[in-house]
Amino acid sequence: xxxxxxxxxxxxxxxxxxxxxxxxxxxxxxxxxxxxxxxxxxxxxxxxxxxxxxxxxxxxxxxxxxxxxxxxxxxxxxxxxxxxxxxxxxxxxxxxxxxxxxxxxxxxxxxxxxxxxxxx
Length: 120
What we know:
Largest sheet: 7 strands, mixed
Shape: elongated
Distance between the termini: 40 Å
Mean pLDDT: 97
Structural class: mainly beta
Strand content: over 45%
Helix content: under 10%
Low-confidence stretches: none
Number of helices: 0
């Protein structure tokens, strides 16, 4: 089976940086698109950023240049560098992998999420 595991979340002061990681494991030949989503308390889950296997990226407006998504295709791992964190960044951040090519075809998978809390 395919599993996505996030890491790097935690508590942070406003203005500091965190880097999230998400590693996909299993018998995986390739992953077309990997991305990060977040869900703040009392709000809907929203897209943070996407990155394709070729390195094309798509960012939500609220990132304002503070966040950078990257990936290591050889390791099936995606990263989210978050700089100048703000209290409104507090959320559970979840990793998504789409177009995951395995022995049974293509699929979509989610990680369980990692919590980011930004407060003084």
